[in-house]
């Protein structure tokens, strides 16, 4: 079998340059196609498999920068090397921000050109290997359900994801707002870049600015090192601002400025840092009511809610409950072998469907885990659901069953602590601050325990 020849597309409106580059690259063993304009190049890309593109910046018709933008917005990820006879630092920076691999000046030095081409193709090969490995790894959890309500959400994600528009995701606690945000990112042209999530309610207001924008060494007491903020971490990718309705007005003003100017300044820093971030936000609050009460900026609301998506509660899609419950049990089996023999029967699924789930999918997941641990048999039927979930408390019999399942005191203690914490969170409608006050723990300790016990938040 013959060795695969990398396919290079040379795009330049000067025929002598095209022919020279074609001759050099073909001599090196590459397959070369040429295009005299950006429009012709885009047509060739849509009809051929391209491994690398050499792209002139100054061309008649659409220029190289616009051609590059259209290549990337169409989802093509092959490396693009920009070439220009009168290159400037500003052009190079702009091209790099838009995803160009490198920038060469005309006439390109032969050795530099060939080294750049080899390195770009090697990086492309490595990227393909990473994607293959990624496909074999566990992906993002699916959005489970076949109801009309959730089907509309899936359709909306498919429409919104390929765009650069900002999205405001609303819905009750536990409905899966972050999951919607992750799928918007996963189906977008930014999917191979970072998805960075920030829980605005979990960070004290005095630390939120440093968390979002970073800080320089010595910016304030305790700033012993430079810190890169979430906006910089998400550069080129997606930043998810969860519970944005809990953000202070001061922080709102700073976020608004970033969204207007597309640059940030670290706390204690003097330089402006340009960023390319798609912002998705989520809240369980009615932001329009918050605006009327003076708790949320109207100008920020309009910036973040270009596309609004409301995630339905379980009450609005009860027909999905059996599917979700079975999916939750499957997920538990993958993590813990002790669940491997547990199954639902029809009566158990029907009983779950008839219950009211104020904590939505998150509460249902935790209820399935509790049923798997505390149900007396291997089949979760209507009787088991009635016995274990008859109230939001766990009686002495339940603790005895839990004790029978393990001889390890630490395991028993951790399971008991997890069940207690879930119960308290459910009792307080998953409001972290209220739960912290009710049980005498700091909010940060509750978040740590939720992470430790894999209580999804």
Keywords for this entry:
Rossmann fold; 457 residues; five-stranded parallel sheet; Helicase, Ruva Protein, domain 3; globular; 16 strands; 3 domains; 20 helices; alpha/beta
Topology summary:
Elements: E1 7-11, H1 15-27, E2 31-35, H2 38-47, E3 52-56, H3 64-73, E4 80-84, H4 89-97, E5 102-105, H5 110-136, H6 148-160, E6 167-170, H7 177-186, E7 195-199, H8 205-213, E8 214-215, E9 227-228, H9 230-233, E10 238-242, H10 249-261, E11 263-264, E12 273-274, E13 278-283, H11 287-292, H12 298-304, E14 307-310, H13 321-335, E15 343-344, H14 346-354, H15 360-374, E16 379-380, H16 382-388, H17 396-404, H18 409-427, H19 432-439, H20 443-452
Task: Describe the protein in words.
The longest helix is centred in the N-terminal third of the chain and has 27 residues, at 110-136. The chain has three domains: 7-136, Response regulator (Rossmann fold); 148-310, P-loop containing nucleotide triphosphate hydrolases (Rossmann fold, 3-Layer(aba) Sandwich), CATH 3.40.50.300; 315-452, Helicase, Ruva Protein, domain 3 (Orthogonal Bundle). It has helices at 15-27, 38-47, 64-73, 89-97, 110-136, 148-160, 177-186, 205-213, 230-233, 249-261, 287-292, 298-304, 321-335, 346-354, 360-374, 382-388, 396-404, 409-427, 432-439, 443-452; strands at 7-11, 31-35, 52-56, 80-84, 102-105, 167-170, 195-199, 214-215, 227-228, 238-242, 263-264, 273-274, 278-283, 307-310, 343-344, 379-380. The chain is α/β, with parallel strands linked by helices and 457 residues long.
